[in-house]
Amino acid sequence: MVVMPTVQEVRTALEEVKDPELNLGILELGLVYDVSVEGDASEHVTVVMTLTSPMCPVGPMFKKSVEDHVLAVAGVKSANVEITFSPPWDPATMASDDVKATLGIW
Questions:
Q1: Domain limits at 58?
Q2: Any bridge partners for residue 62, and if so which?
Q3: Averaged confidence pLDDT in the chain
Q4: Per-residue b/e over 22-38, b at no fewer than 16 CB within 10 Å?
Q5: Which of 19, 33, 56, 69 could in theory staple to 51 by disulfide, Cβ–Cβ 3.0 to 4.6 A?
Q6: Is the peptide bond before 87 cis (omega within 30 degrees of 0)?
Q7: How many domains does the chain contain in total?
């Protein structure tokens, strides 16, 4: 039986990934812009995301952590994590209300 991963399963796996500097979840921070699942059996996943800062010193390690979490989803054979800064991350408009409260953004 072929396991076909879904976007929701990938997003659930990404709930465990924390921004290394803020120690808050990347989904709650609004760092993940898009998740797509493609292929004959939906085995190729692309995550489009950003970093809190273009000069993030842990960017490569952070990207690898996202890839590893995506690859851990049953049925995923390849993961591509694309880093973009367009649009730039803005916690005031992209973060969840809980994160805004934690960061003191009203």
A1: 7-98
A2: none
A3: 92
A4: bebbbbbbbbbeebebe
A5: 56
A6: yes
A7: 1
CATH of the domain at 53: 3.30.300.130
* One-character DSSP codes across the chain: ------HHHHHHHHTT-B-TTT-SBHHHHT-EEEEEEESTTS-EEEEEE--S-TT-TTHHHHHHHHHHHHHTSTT--EEEEEE--SSPP-HHHHS-HHHHHHHT--
Q: Is residue 106 part of a domain?
A: no
Give residue for tokens 């880093």. Answer: 83
52: its two tokens? 């809190």
pLDDT in tens, 2-49: 678 999 999 999 999 999 888 999 999 999 999 999 988 779 999 999
User: 1: pLDDT confidence band, cut at 50, 70 and 90?
Assistant: low
